[in-house]
């Protein structure tokens, strides 16, 4: 049997680029489609540099997944064994102000992709869902059976797409879906060659800490110091992006299990870390002092969120390997080598 072919939507982005490295290392033929709306083609160049000869198995097309004829052309040229679907907008605050933009990009984009997949007989999908679908969980750890809710339009797109996948599977059991609920991905490839490159001011904690450390922001605002947690700050399940990438290759292998239908898995470490603990670990890894400004809670934030990991361990045979120190070390390595993210053009 020849190498399996995988289409990766959003593969130039943060999680996508790390996953593409793993796919190429594992011998998959990989086609990336991305509109580069929140990413840079330099990420693709860097991925190629990281994988040596395997770069021959990677091709990139700058297209929007809502462009059906362009997507059909990609499927007409390659018979895909599966699709990993990262492409989407992900800024919670922006989604509150521009819900239609989020519904158009995330929902219409996914419907277009699923329609083209059906037309070309490719019915295996791994989808990037989020722990955001647990809302403010009534207890922790969050198991996959917890009730689901959406606190904002971004979260609603994740929930709607999950529901769409469940309905499609109910209508046609030839489909196989794996819905991966990511907790909080941070860190970067240990080479420092690829990492997260948010456009504008970051909303998430780790990219903000990084920008303070390299002098792009004066101080970190700590959103809430009165939570019922060990030090009063919010607790999250941070997961190394390389572990997350490995979770995707594990999910792809699971798609060839004849018994799989539409399944959900948490991808987290099962450990909770507070804002102050993460800051302190980052200070240790970087040798930089992160000035803090303690402010009120951010609206919509949950108190404590971390994953139950047993289902992924048991059924995907996958478990996160890296700890907070590794995540901070690799984040800092990426930050030192790329303090302003990817250059607009690769010069070397
Ligand atoms: P990212 O923005 O770095 O990557 C998403 C990629 O999709 C970008 O390269 C962007 O240009 C591309 N894209 C967006 N809309 C597109 C479209 N219509 N057509 C083609 N390409 C398009 O984000 P990421 O952090 O790598 O996240 C990947 C996925 O994982 C997203 O769906 C996100 O919602 C989900 N997710 C991310 C996190 C997180 O904290 N990073 C947590 C949970 C879930
Ligand atoms: C946020 C999103 C969530 C999304 C997730 C991953 C909100 C309300 N939720 O979750 O939908 O799935 O990102 O992309 O935006 N913090 C600070 N200062 C900062 C930034 C964050 O103190 O400048 C705190 C937050 O209050 C929280 C923790 O750091 O306690 C983590 O925040 P963040 O990285 O934004 O992730 P989530 O809140 O988990």
UniProtKB/TrEMBL annotation:
It comes from the Eukaryota. InterPro entries: NAD(P)-bd_dom, NAD(P)-bd_dom_sf, UDP_G4E. GO terms for molecular function: UDP-glucose 4-epimerase activity. GO terms for biological process: galactose metabolic process. SUPFAM superfamilies: NAD(P)-binding Rossmann-fold domains. Residues 7-330 form the NAD(P)-binding domain. GO terms for cellular component: cytosol. It catalyses: UDP-alpha-D-glucose = UDP-alpha-D-galactose. Its EC number is 5.1.3.-. It holds the Pfam family GDP_Man_Dehyd. Pathway: Carbohydrate metabolism; galactose metabolism. Transmembrane segments: none annotated. Keywords: Carbohydrate metabolism, Galactose metabolism, Isomerase, NAD. It is an enzyme of class 5 (isomerase). Its cofactor is NAD(+). Belongs to the NAD(P)-dependent epimerase/dehydratase family. This is UDP-glucose 4-epimerase. It comes from Artemisia annua (Sweet wormwood).
């Amino acid at each position: 049997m020849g190498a399996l072919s995988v289409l990766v939507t959003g593969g130039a982005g943060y999680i996508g680029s790390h996953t593409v490295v793993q796919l190429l290392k594992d011998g998959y033929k990989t086609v990336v489609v991305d509109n580069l709306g929140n990413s840079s083609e330099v990420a693709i160049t860097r991925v190629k540099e990281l994988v040596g000869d395997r770069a021959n198995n990677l091709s990139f097309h700058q297209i929007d997944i809502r462009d059906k004829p362009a997507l059909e052309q990609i499927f007409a040229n390659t018979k895909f064994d599966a699709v990993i679907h990262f492409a989407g907008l992900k800024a919670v605050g922006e989604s509150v102000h521009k819900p239609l933009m989020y519904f158009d990009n995330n929902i219409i984009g996914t419907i277009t992709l699923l329609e083209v997949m059906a037309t070309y007989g490719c019915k295996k999908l791994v989808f990037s869902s989020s722990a955001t679908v647990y809302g403010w969980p009534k207890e922790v750890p969050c198991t996959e059976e917890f009730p689901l809710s959406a606190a904002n339009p971004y979260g609603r797109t994740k929930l709607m797409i999950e529901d769409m996948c469940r309905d499609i599977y109910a209508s046609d059991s030839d489909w196989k879906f794996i819905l991966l609920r990511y907790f909080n991905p941070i860190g970067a490839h240990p080479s420092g060659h690829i990492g997260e490159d948010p456009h504008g001011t970051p909303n998430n904690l780790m990219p903000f800490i990084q920008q303070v450390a390299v002098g792009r922001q004066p101080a970190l605002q700590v959103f809430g110091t009165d939570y019922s947690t060990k030090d009063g700050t919010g607790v999250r399940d941070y997961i190394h992006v390389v572990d997350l990438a490995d979770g995707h290759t594990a999910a792809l292998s699971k798609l060839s299990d004849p018994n799989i239908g539409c399944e959900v898995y948490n991808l987290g470490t099962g450990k909770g870390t507070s804002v102050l603990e993460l800051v302190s670990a980052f200070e240790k890894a970087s040798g930089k002092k992160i000035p803090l400004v303690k402010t009120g809670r951010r609206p919509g934030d949950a108190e404590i969120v971390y994953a139950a990991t047993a289902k992924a361990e048991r059924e995907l045979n996958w478990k996160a390997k890296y700890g907070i120190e590794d995540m901070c070390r690799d984040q800092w390595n990426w930050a030192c080598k790329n303090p302003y993210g990817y250059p607009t053009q690769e010069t070397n």
